[in-house]
Write a structure and sequence with these properties.
It contains nine helices and eight strands. A hairpin with a 5-residue loop joins β1 (54-56) and β2. It has helices at 7-16, 27-34, 38-51, 66-72, 76-96, 138-144, 149-156, 171-184, 226-244; strands at residues 54-56, 62-64, 99-106, 109-116, 131-133, 187-190, 197-207, 210-220. InterPro entries: GAF-like_dom_sf, HTH_MetabolicPath_Reg, Tscrpt_reg_IclR_C, Tscrpt_reg_IclR_N, WH-like_DNA-bd_sf, WH_DNA-bd_sf. This is DNA-binding transcriptional regulator, IclR family.
């Protein structure tokens, strides 16, 4: 990686190197992954530690600092949506005992902003703050179905990532799927991400036809009663949508 950009940009690029698979990194790790000299990394990490964006554990490795999470949690798109959606998500979790997820679109990916783990439910590979392609998950498909045509064209032009042998990667089939989602207001991802899980998702509308988020249930593929889940998830999406719309003055 070339040493380009302002000090701020270079600092942010260091923070991007921390992932769920690599939450703790040494100075050498950061230098190797970024391509920056050790001296540059040392200077940048010192500033990030002083501000609170990074912390150093007892072994000397760097971790993301709590202050960074505090600032990120104020992002308005996620905060207001989560506050309005949580009561509905909790009800859905109590009724089904399954995993409930909430996601928004960022570029051509889903960003998961909330998740409630179901009791003894199938394990999921998503996490709050994590990203995932739009083309495979229930939430991603529910969002993609309501995106402008040029965005859909960009996503479907590929490459489309394949996760299992059931992942749909044919753009023609995906377009038919998106049309059906717009008709039914429900997206079903049947073992497209993992072979043990089915996702049923519904869009959340800021206004008619404009989906800003989606809510989903992720259940075990074995014995999943999708037809029984569809009305529950659709109702959850519509309830959150109504909560998002401004109320007329009294």
């Amino acid at each position: 990686m070339a040493i380009t950009g302002s000090v701020t940009i270079r600092s942010l690029r260091l923070l991007e190197l921390f992932t769920p698979a690599a939450p703790r990194l040494t100075l050498s790790d950061l230098s190797r992954k970024s391509g920056y000299p050790l001296s540059t990394v040392h200077r940048l990490t010192s500033d990030l530690i002083e501000w609170g964006a990074l912390e150093r554990d007892s072994s000397g490795r760097f971790t993301v600092g709590l202050k960074l999470w505090e600032i990120a949690s104020l992002a308005p798109r996620g905060t207001m949506l989560r506050e309005l959606a949580m009561p509905v998500m909790e009800d859905l979790s109590q009724i089904t005992r399954e995993n409930v997820q909430l996601g928004i679109c960022e570029g051509t990916e889903v960003v998961f902003v909330e998740r409630i783990a179901g009791q003894k439910a199938v394990p999921v590979h998503t996490r709050v703050g994590g990203r995932f392609p739009l083309t495979a998950s229930g939430i991603g498909l529910a969002l993609l179905a309501y995106m402008p045509a040029d965005v859909q064209d960009q996503v479907l032009a590929g490459p489309i990532e394949k996760f299992t042998d059931r992942t749909v990667t044919d753009p023609v089939v995906l377009r038919r799927t998106l049309a059906e989602i717009r008709r039914s207001e429900v997206a079903i991802s049947d073992r497209q991400v993992t072979l043990d899980a089915v996702s049923v998702a519904a869009p959340i509308f800021e206004r008619p036809g404009t989906a800003i988020a989606a809510v989903s249930l992720v259940v075990s593929a074995e014995g999943a009663s999708v037809n029984a889940l569809v009305p529950l998830v659709r109702a959850a999406g519509r309830t959150i949508s109504r909560a998002l719309r401004p109320r007329p003055p009294t």
